[in-house]
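Entry 12.
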Amino acid sequence: MKNTGESFESYIQFIYQTLLGVQGRNISVSRRATVYDNHGNPYNIDIFYEFDVAGVHHRVAIECKDTRRPVERDDAIAFTGKIRDLPSTIGIFISKSGFQPAAKKYLQDHGIVHYAGGDLPHLGSVIASMISPIALPDESATGQPFWTLMRQEGGQTTGVWCLIPDPTAQEEGTSGSFPIFYSRPHAQWFHEAFYQGSTDVCIRGVEQPMLRFLCLMADNEGRSFSIGHPFIDEEGNQKAAFTTWTGRELAHEYSTRDLSAEFGERGHE
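Predicted 3D structure (tokens):
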């Protein structure tokens, strides 16, 4: 069967649209779009977005390559040329098989954001600069109503959420669960107990936009949430019990916005 790249494009579109949907406004998204440059010439774009965040209008063109071989320099040149001619447009090149050295250098030299297949779990950082309150919450974020743990480097969050073994997974190590807590002190206790207070991990409040994104992402990836309940056992030791929730269950119970339409559109494959 010929690989048309349809499923790969759909995955990229879903992740990107979910991130934008929690905070963006006036979102327009097209797949296999025809976009015109400043001179009226048409270009074919795999995924094209227009949206408003914080009063600023953004245009993003995404090139998706799902091929066996890494992207070559000629492909990088062609896409860079499209972006150069499109007005006020950010270019993102995503290749499931990576890039040849010459192609990667060309994209870097011309300021084109590029990600290989192995980078896709961290796709949130692609648009962190646009919707940073979700992807990179700072210490001022408050739990609404949860607190969680994120990875950080040099004192700055990386956009990667911490996961723990999923108690509902049928096979060990096949998935991960988001640990969340009702209070910051509970999250701090877990930070000390599970991560030995590592400086590579920080505690962040889960505000409503971030909660909606996490619920949708967890549902799409088949992950769960583990709500921690610290307690003192009979011997005076502090431990924690966890209750497991799906993304849909958590959104239904705690989200301030009805997400049934978003869940309904995706369904389960």
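Annotation: DSSP finds eight helices and twelve strands in the chain. Confidence is low (pLDDT under 50) at residues 265-269.
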